[in-house]
């Protein structure tokens, strides 16, 4: 069964009671039992809910995985995975990652004795050098947020020894463009808020694995901590995921056009997009991805101009988050990555002139005209004629 067919059919069977073609929203907290311990597989919705179960089956299939656990947010999914570790365990994480992930690692889990090292995961030797005898987990984003670096998943997975776990946050690439489990990862994490939901109307997260033992441990965390999505949120996410393939093709097509346009502007000092031949890991991206996604970051040397441009666009809304059908622009240093100390942000390349685009599925010509107009309007008069 091909990807688009799986997205629409796996977990989406007609309701056996009524024949409803669309999975119902089982808006219930509890279930009537025939006798003590005798029920139809459902006893309490924190533990299992039919709508959430349908979503988990759907998302596992999209990642070519056997098991999935849905969560109330991407951060809840992240916390459940890191919660598998114990005091004294060590994590090798990317040095360019979502600010919320850095925050929970640094300000929550470090308090419990879990240690973190941050390495450039696009550099295999840097990852190797960060490994300690106590390393239990590798945390990879690829592409990274917001600099869109690419980690060679298979090469890093080959560094794993013993019971070390390789986790890939696949939110930017989506399972349509990248399958980390097939490349050697043990667990895939998504903020389903983003491309999987795809419409900026629901918060959620998921973990996917082929390892039954890891699935059981994460499921235990899911049930024990209880950060699960309600039936309505599961249903909205499921509906969004059905169109993931067609949306991602448009996101990637538009992002490529936008990246090439920005690269051709002399007043844009740097463009980050793995679909550009100039990207440092372009060949790795071509090898492990079937498309390059909808995220583009770029740098303006004038910080004041970057701040002005962020709120000067017509079709790119200034907003947190990403992955919806509408285009968004964000200033990572002040928004999504504001929880990372300034010195660390700047050392990692997240300057005050960096802007991140979530390129939507509007007409590409309108997006280019919007960017061109705003860039020209905010440019110094002496440089307008150069374009």
Features:
387 residues, alpha/beta, Aspartate Aminotransferase, domain 2, 2 domains, 7-stranded mixed sheet, 15 helices
Give the arrangement of secondary structure elements.
Layout: H1 3-9, H2 50-62, E1 67-71, H3 74-82, E2 90-94, H4 99-107, E3 115-119, H5 124-130, E4 135-141, H6 153-157, E5 165-169, H7 174-177, E6 187-191, E7 205-209, H8 212-225, H9 231-241, H10 244-263, E8 270-272, H11 282-288, E9 295-299, H12 303-310, E10 317-318, E11 328-330, H13 342-348, E12 354-358, H14 364-378, H15 381-384
Parallel strand pairs: 2-3, 2-4, 4-5, 5-6, 10-11
Antiparallel strand pairs: 1-7, 6-7, 8-9, 9-12, 11-12
Textual characterization of the structure:
- This protein has two domains: 239 residues, Aspartate Aminotransferase, domain 2 (3-Layer(aba) Sandwich), CATH 3.40.640; 141 residues, Aspartate Aminotransferase, domain 1, CATH 3.90.1150.10.
- Helix 2 packs parallel to helix 9.
- The chain is globular and about 80 Å long.
- The model has no long low-confidence stretch (mean pLDDT 95).
- With 387 residues, the chain is of the alpha/beta class.
